[in-house]
Amino acid sequence: MKKNSTKFAVCALLAALLLGGCVYHKPALRGKVVDAETDEPLEGAVVAVIYSRKIFTYCCCIFPHSSVEELSERETLTDMNGMFYIPSYTTVMMPISLGSGMSFSIFKPGYGWRYRVSPAPLSGGGMTESLSKGSGPVLKMPKVKTWEERQEVSIYLFGDGPLLRNALKKEKKWLYKNKGWRR
Fold it and tell me: How far, in Å, CA of 50 to CA of 86, rounded?
């Protein structure tokens, strides 16, 4: 009887160790989006996060290969104070995953995609670490000055969530109607 309980305990421990590495967790993200020149909060900016994992596979059963697979996308709008909050994300991955990642986009019509972070991202943890600590960083968005700059913003953004997709669709219409625009 004792032998069976020992085997069960060993199997349970091995299963926990194997599956414990398969849990994908990213903390809640928060921050504030403001105009880079005036420090005024930007209400209604779309903040999108894409969670992904890297998968190890074999090409033609011989050569190792890795690919990135999107796990989930979360998005929100900034409030009247420019604040945003995206809840934490947890899921279970297959053991063949090599690692995990997170991509971050902010979009507000008339503003650039190369934002500055204040305070600067924490060393070691980078942007993810900064966004998950305290009240989060302040993200300073520069205004675009030409039609070309405004078009470039919509080209470099990624994500397929409904908020970002609708905002980019409106931006595309605006760009079509206002070709040659300058601030």
Answer: 11
Placement of tokens 């059963």 in the chain: 61
Which of 101, 47, 106 lies closest to 71, judged by CA?
101
Q: Which residues contact 75 (CB under 8 A, 6 or more apart)?
A: 46, 47, 48, 49, 86, 159, 161, 162, 163, 164
Q: How far is it, in rounded angstroms, from Cα 109 to Cα 105?
A: 13
Query: In whole angstroms, how far apart are CA 120 and each of 27, 126, 141?
Result: 19, 9, 14
Q: What is the pLDDT of residues 86-131, one digit of tens each?
A: 998 887 766 666 666 777 788 888 888 666 665 554 444 455 566 6
Rounded to 5 degrees, φ, ψ at 22 are: -95, -5
Residue ranges covered by each domain of the chain: 29-49+74-86+102-177
Q: DSSP letters of 30-53?
A: EEEEEETTT--B-TT-EEEEEEEE
**How distant is the alpha carbon of residue 135 from its chain centre?**
17
Q: How far apart are CA 83 and CA 160, in angstroms?
A: 22
Q: Which amino acid is located at 130 in the chain?
A: S
* End-to-end CA separation in angstroms for the chain: 81
Q: Is 6 helix (H, G, I), strand (E, B) or coil?
A: helix
Second-level CATH architecture of 29-49+74-86+102-177:
Sandwich (2.60)
Question: Can you tell me which residue has the tokens 């305070």?
Answer: 119
